[in-house]
Amino acid sequence: MTHFHTSRLRAPLALIVALALSGCAGSGGLFGGGAGGGTAGSGALSSGDFGDPTSPAYFQQAIGDRVLFAVDQSTLSGEAQQVVSQQARWLMDNGAYTAVIEGHADEQGTQEYNLALGARRASAVRDFMVSQGVADNRLSTVTFGKERPIEVCSEERCYAQNRRAVTVLSAAPGS
């Protein structure tokens, strides 16, 4: 009898676990924008309509809310500069938003090293946005080091996704 009840519960439990895990990994993760879903970060806004070019959803999907870094690097690649340049243009066109730039690292290295690396990555994105014309007071940075991976495995494909900076939108004060 107990076996019957257990087996009947497996499928729904497996579905619940799968849904919960899908919220933790990949884009749109449970851990916020930096962990996978750009506008789901701490203090982030609801994403709005993807078809609205002034919405956070559009920012996240059409422009891209993150850039990736090479191993132990905090220098923006040419591709990353293009994305951050578009982010900056969007922020200048949409003054009702501010942004927190989250810096992340892969699991390699010490916690202290990765926190410092994440901070450098976030600062590199912020500095580039400021150089593109975004007011410095609309941007802030935070580092999570290796504490919020979006991919959890000890392989380069996962490390590469976790070496990132994510731009998380927030409502500007007074808007």
Automatic annotation (TrEMBL):
InterPro entries: Bact_OuterMem_StrucFunc, OMP_bac, OmpA-like, OmpA-like_sf, Pal, Pal_lipo_C
Domain (OmpA-like): residue spans on this chain: 56-173
Signal sequence, start to end: 1-27
Pfam family, one: OmpA
Compartment annotation: Cell outer membrane
UniProt GO cellular component terms: cell outer membrane
GO biological process: cell division
Key word Ribosomal protein present: no
Chief localization: membrane
Keyword Membrane among record annotations: yes
Keywords: Cell cycle, Cell division, Cell outer membrane, Lipoprotein, Membrane, Palmitate, Signal
Family (UniProt): Belongs to the Pal lipoprotein family.
UniProt function note: Part of the Tol-Pal system, which plays a role in outer membrane invagination during cell division and is important for maintaining outer membrane integrity.
PANTHER family linked to this entry: LIPOPROTEIN YIAD-RELATED, STATOR ELEMENT OF FLAGELLAR MOTOR COMPLEX
Assembly and interaction partners: The Tol-Pal system is composed of five core proteins: the inner membrane proteins TolA, TolQ and TolR, the periplasmic protein TolB and the outer membrane protein Pal. They form a network linking the inner and outer membranes and the peptidoglycan layer.
Protein name per Swiss-Prot or TrEMBL: Peptidoglycan-associated protein
Upper lineage: Bacteria, Pseudomonadati, Pseudomonadota, Alphaproteobacteria, Rhodobacterales
